[in-house]
Amino acid sequence: DTGVSQDPRHKITKRGQNVTFRCDPISEHNRLYWYRQTLGQGPEFLTYFQNEAQLEKSRLLSDRFSAERPKGSFSTLEIQRTEQGDSAMYLCASSPLSGALNTGELFFGEGSRLTVL
Amino acid sequence: SQKIEQNSEALNIQEGKTATLTCNYTNYSPAYLQWYRQDPGRGPVFLLLIRENEKEKRKERLKVTFDTTLKQSLFHITASQPADSATYLCALDLTGGGNKLTFGTGTQLKVEL
Fold first, then answer.
1. Which chain A residues contact residue B32 at CB under 8 A?
2. Burial (Cβ within 10 Å: 0-12, 13-18, ≥19) of residue A25
3. Which of A18, A25, B42, B86 measures 20 to 30 Å from A110, CA to CA?
């Protein structure tokens, strides 16, 4: 078990460009979450998947943001036409479904830091 | 409005002392409350979870209390060490199903020799 993996760890882009982040959750985890964290703040929920179904999206997730988890395994988060306000750490987390395996905790990756110039 | 408040100023303590961090919330009724540790540039790491019907939970040098009447959780680290220096985040799980967490802003702890 290698934990939650995110790629890339750092991305610098120019305003208006599109960026995509990838998250590989812990293999037996059905749930996958995306959070955004800016400096000095706690993580803010963006969206979550149960298997391949996207079950909830935050109002923070504007039309420029889209997340997918096509086969219920890895997930991608795409930001189109990036703005300077999108600069943040994008965190992915996973957890098992309710049951014996579910202690309620989230297992976070190391994050993808986005800087929009 | 709904708020989760943690000490905004960094907490500096001496090695060996007990660190106490506070998490206050308003207009929430969480089923669970969790504490995470976050080091600079890293993702949060889970420490402890406490349920609404539990008053106290312990794990090694860590202790969490949960007072749903006061709407407050206290997080204690006993015999603190420089390696405990990090930001500590409290998070509310409103449904108990682990669907999503609502995080506070975190408190930075510095343990000095």
1. 104
2. buried
3. A18
